[in-house]
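Mods, move this if it's the wrong board.
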Amino acid sequence: MPELVIDSPVGPLCLTEEGGEITRLTWSRGASDTSEPTDLLQDAAEQLAAYFDKRLQVFDLPMRVHGSAFQRAVCAAMSAVPLGHTTTYGDIARDVGGSAQSVGTACGANPIPILIPCHRVLGANGLGGFSGQGGVETKVQLLRHEGAAGLLI
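Not the wrong board. Structure tokens:
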């Protein structure tokens, strides 16, 4: 599978493409594949750079979430949360069915963080967790970057 590593304010990010869709974003240097990046990976890198430069608010990339129907529904609900806003695990649970805990588990298993903004989902009484490198500190950094950190100050 083609991969592309980019540097970002939250560390190195490795994008993975499979069958013409982004399927993974991880905090890593990726595999040793040094092949030329695909057009889609280049586009994803450019969109991430524009996001971190505050020139992009909505990602427009083909993405596929491998997982259960519930996992895909939670990812779709997270994708609907606009930049600068947040929601809660409980709100998503009411929208897609299931419990706040099962939504939290699905958020933690999000294979494409940032592009699918799991960092915009909070607990009822706190930040909740974050599976990306740096944990909750990275979640706070992303929320501040997006201007959704008023609740954190």
